[in-house]
Specification:
Blueprint lengths: L2 E2 L11 H4 L10 E4 L2 E3 L10 H15 L2 H8 L3 H20 L13 H8 L6 H24 L1 H8 L2 H20 L4 H4 L1 H16 L1 H9 L1 H8 L3 H13 L17 H7 L2 H4 L4 H35 L9 H18 L11 H11 L9 H17 L1 H7 L3 H23 L3 H17 L1 H16 L17
Antiparallel strand pairs: 1-2, 2-3
Length: 470
């Protein structure tokens, strides 16, 4: 493995900040290892303390998966916490192997997977259903990555269908919060204030202008959505929507023994082959959502590349598929997780990218921001004071990430379209996906593209409605 210099045109010892004046774009230092680029904190990228601190408290979103596993599989809290910890450690593999993302769940597909598992009796059979599904999803993703088909799939899908899948994922994310039984009904005041603050800090033009003139606003802007979580901790009990946090001290105590004995193949054995066969339709439907997540990651990183010509960021779908495919396969064996291992946490990817776009003084390398954030979430998961502090507002954290994801998905999805016909197809595809599921949405998009474009199914049209793509 050989180390790659930060700027090929820079001599040894030259200040990288000064070297950017030559207009060249280069990647951060790394060790090359086949399709992967190994990066370690303090060795290959600067540790970003603002993102690390934000991650300490945004571990609340990771913890929000615990109620899902408790209700679906009957897991005790401590066992579900063990699953969250394992998944948290695997999050680190993305940036450390060269995938420039904040990884997360396959969020829009969670209702789909839960509905599939609930068709089996609670107990060993339902656990086997989740295990077989997650292993099969992982192996399918790895196969696409190793063969190079993942990159081809992303490029080959018509623009109208890409647009529809992204918009549909955004609508489904928002719908999840406001549907009957959704988080908004439990925390209406807190979610309104916390999410409103998040959008103001991230996307408001007035705050952006204020941040450029005021040092205090600049420091607040560096914290991303951390102020929103801290505000929620105070507002929720004041509004009567949650109890005051009962902070406890120490380190958490996850139950790995029970996890491996009662919820994994080590104690239950491998699922029968027919379980894997039954999981195939759900795996394919879930992959449609994964594909949409990959498009979001690619779209956000293209924006980052435009804003920061000093660092070249490459999103390689094949490499990404191998990494999150490995995560799903391993989790299926040692800690089945209903939230699954997705290619990107769209909301936090957007938060980190927005800070990265502010320049090298805000964040030297995007790998530093994304890596530091995930080191922060892993630290937060271990600390009982932080876990107990955010435990009452896990629903608010879930709403925060889903509503930001909805905003990003719709924005990027619309910009994927190339014509007014594309937008019409995307609208029908998105609505069908949100109401009927991923498989129905994709089917509607394919049918409409065939009927409208015929032989131009893959190329579609560009009628000048949108600016030319860079």
């Amino acid at each position: 493995m050989s180390q790659i210099s930060e700027d090929p045109g820079r001599g040894p010892g030259e200040d990288p900040d000064k070297a950017q004046g030559n207009g060249r774009s280069s990647s951060t230092p790394h060790w090359k290892a086949g399709p992967f680029e190994i990066r370690l904190p303090f060795v290959h990228y600067r540790f970003e303390w603002a993102d690390y601190t934000q991650g300490l408290f945004m571990c609340a979103v990771d913890l929000a998966a615990i109620p899902l596993m408790v209700s679906l599989l009957g897991m005790p809290f401590e066992v579900a916490l063990a699953v969250i910890l394992i998944n948290g450690l695997l999050y680190l593999t993305h940036h450390m192997l060269g995938d420039p993302v904040v990884p997360g769940w396959i969020t829009p597909a969670i209702p789909l997977v839960m509905a599939y598992c609930e068709t089996f009796p609670e107990g060993e059979e339902r656990i086997h259903a989740l295990i077989s599904f997650q292993i099969l999803l992982g192996l399918f993703s790895i196969t696409l990555g190793v063969t190079g088909l993942a990159r081809r799939v992303v490029k080959a899908i018509p623009a109208a269908i890409k647009s529809g899948v992204l918009i549909g994922a955004g609508i489904a994310a928002v719908q999840r919060i406001f549907d009957e039984g959704g988080e908004f009904h439990d925390f209406p005041v807190t979610i309104t204030i916390a999410v409103g603050l998040a959008f103001f800090l991230m996307y408001s033009r007035s705050f952006s202008s204020w941040r450029e003139r005021n040092r205090f606003a600049m420091q607040i802007g560096k914290l991303g959505v951390l102020p929103c979580i801290l505000i929620a901790v105070i507002v929720a009990p004041l509004a009567g929507e949650a109890e005051w946090s009962e902070v406890e001290w120490g380190i958490i105590q996850p139950d790995f023994v029970t996890l491996w004995r009662e919820y994994t193949v080590f104690g239950l054995g491998m699922p029968p082959l027919e379980m894997f066969a039954l999981a195939i339709p759900t795996v394919l439907a879930t992959y449609i959502v994964v594909f949409g997540d990959s498009l979001q990651a690619d779209g956000l990183l293209k924006e980052a590349n435009k804003a920061r010509p000093d660092e070249h960021i490459e999103y390689n779908p094949d490499r990404a598929h191998m990494i999150f495919g490995f995560r799903n396969t391993l989790m299926g064996v040692i800690g089945p997780d209903v939230a699954m291992a997705g290619p990107v946490w769209a909301a936090m990817q957007a938060v980190v990218v927005e800070r990265y776009k502010q320049g090298r003084k805000a964040m030297k390398s995007i790998f530093g921001g994304m890596g530091s954030f995930r080191w922060g979430t892993n630290t937060g998961l271990l600390l009982l004071p932080i876990v107990t502090l955010v435990e009452p507002i896990l629903g608010v954290a879930m709403a925060l990430t889903l509503l930001i994801q909805g905003f990003v998905s719709v924005r990027i999805g619309i910009m994927e379209a190339r014509s007014q016909r594309d937008l019409g197809i995307a609208g029908i595809t998105a609505a069908t996906l949100a109401l009927m599921g991923a498989a129905w949405g994709l089917g509607a998009g394919v049918l409409l593209c065939l009927l409208i474009y015929g032989r131009q199914f893959f190329s579609g049209e560009d009628d000048g409605t949108f600016a030319k793509k860079d």
